[in-house]
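Protein: Cytochrome P450
Species: Obba rivulosa
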Amino acid sequence: MSIIGSIFEVVQRDVPRAFTRYKEQYGNLVLFRGLRKNVLVLNSLQVINDLFDKRAPNYSHRPDSVFGGELIEYKHTSIFLPYGKEWRAHRKIMYSAPSP
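Structure follows.
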């Protein structure tokens, strides 16, 4: 499928119906690539649960920040920590603090 044809088809038609057609034709995962962007369409609750519940550590981190993390050495602060045990500990402390 060409990316230009796919983009115009989704824009011109009802998007949920177009994605349902793609599910029938290509399966539960449909990846659109183009214009330097990737869009992954998940067409199944089971696939969504598998990706986001069972594999959350793979997808729940922030991108590395060269400026904040490396240059000004804030990589161990809560906002620059990758998802993991240390990040969860920071979050637990922040949520236990009383709100102003």
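Remarks: Helices lie at 3-12, 15-26, 45-54, 56-59, 66-71, 85-96.
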